[in-house]
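Observation: inputs received (chain + adenosine-5'-triphosphate).
Thought: call the complex predictor directly.
Action: predict_structure
Action Input:
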Amino acid sequence: MLTVKNLTLNPLLREANFSVERGEILTLMGPSGSGKSTLFAWMIGALSADFQAHGELWLDDERLDSRPVEKRGIGILFQDALLFDHFSVGQNLMLALPASIRKARREQVEQALASAGLAGFYASDPATLSGGERSRVSLLRALLAQPRALLLDEPFSRLDKSLRVTFREWVFAQVRAQNIPVVLVTHDDDDIPPGGRVIQLAGWQ
Ligand SMILES: Nc1ncnc2c1ncn2[C@@H]1O[C@H](COP(=O)(O)OP(=O)(O)OP(=O)(O)O)[C@@H](O)[C@H]1O
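Observation:
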């Protein structure tokens, strides 16, 4: 279970508290500027020095909030699918793999691409992909890194309506299969997983 406890991000957010179970997708909503992305920045360990944080982040019985980014194991996916354009699609995915499993990596990357309907894209230049294809590659990259929890920051907002529905269902199936806690930020009620919990992030006031 991933838990944010008594978190204050001064001067933006006061006393946020929530928990997410393994395999659960918790939806986080709130007005623009209420601090959703800043909360994610704090959770991954990349908070701007403009904010002062007080609070605790737990994953099961491990306290994470004082650990550096690379020791937290929290993956994040942004609305802009950030890929390295000077590497191929396959190389972008290879970069995500933990060193322990790099031996079998090409095969694993090919399998992951196929599972996302992207068989044959290994050598492609990311700049030639559609928005939806880039989104899928970026989610695959986040998952291949085997994160212990995953934060999704408006991952569907740039996709057109039909692609959005298909991609959303595919994302939910992928993250549920990993059985990790997931927090999803969105402004769109349609993105809330059926039966999923929703919390509203209020601003400082
Ligand atoms: N690095 C930063 N330094 C200073 N202020 C920042 C920084 N990042 C964000 N802010 C400010 O903090 C506030 C919250 O921003 P944040 O991006 O967390 O909101 P949000 O809830 O994710 O908004 P949206 O729904 O529009 O994406 C905004 O007023 C923003 O200008």
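Thought: report the result.
Final Answer: Strands lie at 2-10, 13-20, 25-29, 52-59, 62-63, 74-77, 149-153, 182-185, 198-200. The chain has one domain: 2-200.
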